[in-house]
Amino acid sequence: MTKDAPDAKEVAIRVFFCVRDRIKFGYPHLCKASDVLKRGYGTCSSKTNLQVALLRSMGIPARFRLQSINARVLFENKVPPPFRDEEFAEEVIHYSAEVYLNGKWLVADATFDKEIDPERAIDWRGETHAMILSKKEILKELGTKENLDYVFKSRKNEVESLSKQDADIRRLYVGLLNTYFELIRLRNLLRVKKA
């Protein structure tokens, strides 16, 4: 992926496109980078975790940017009400990567792959910010973090507290949600072929 890249900027760009398009948007969220690679999909937190890990492994400074967003507005036209109302709260934390290039921090948000949301899947060139959110979706800026350990710890406690039946229901629900995302991808691909 980055073997013949001439500089850090090109490495960061290639990592961005790899995470954006090879790792599909889907659940579960808050996964370790290695799990995201195995599964081939992830949410903003999972994809960002992978992106930051890859960049750092190649010697490029990277960190996590956090924003409080209205997920129902973000997924308004993508997810039907039963899923949207259950999974996407009015206020959730959105994660994106910040990359340090040429003396400045740049947002490189690789959350949505081109197939799930062609309009939000920005082509980033390592010179300006690549932000997928509109002003009406952002409730407040929460700053940056060097790692997500505190998030993984709370998520682990939450998962461990589920009964076996609740965990099975959650897995089924996540599977249905991911199937729905695949249907959106298929619909978008068919639209492109018709055009």
Would you kindly provide a written description of the structure presented here, covering whatever features stand out?
α1 runs antiparallel to α3. The chain is globular and about 50 Å long. The chain has a single domain, classed as C8orf32 fold (Roll). The model has no long low-confidence stretch (mean pLDDT 85). The strands form 2 sheets. Strands 5-4-3-6 form a 4-stranded antiparallel β-sheet, covered by helices on one side. A two-stranded parallel ribbon has the order 1-2. 46% of the residues lie in helices and 18% in strands. It is α+β, with helices and mostly antiparallel strands and 195 residues long.
Structure summary:
With 195 residues, the protein is of the alpha+beta class. Helix content is 46%, strand content 18%.
- How much helicity do the residues have? 40-55%
Number of helices: 7
Count of all domains: 1
Cα-based radius of gyration, to the nearest Å:
17 Å
What strand order characterises the main sheet? 5-4-3-6
Overall SS class = alpha+beta
Through-space gap between termini: 31 Å
Shape annotation: globular
Q: Which residues form runs of ≥5 with pLDDT under 50?
A: none
CATH architecture: Roll
CATH fold node name: C8orf32 fold
Largest sheet: number of strands, sense, barrel closure: 4 strands, antiparallel
Overall mean pLDDT stands at 85
- Percent of residues in β-strands: 15-25%
Number of strands: 6
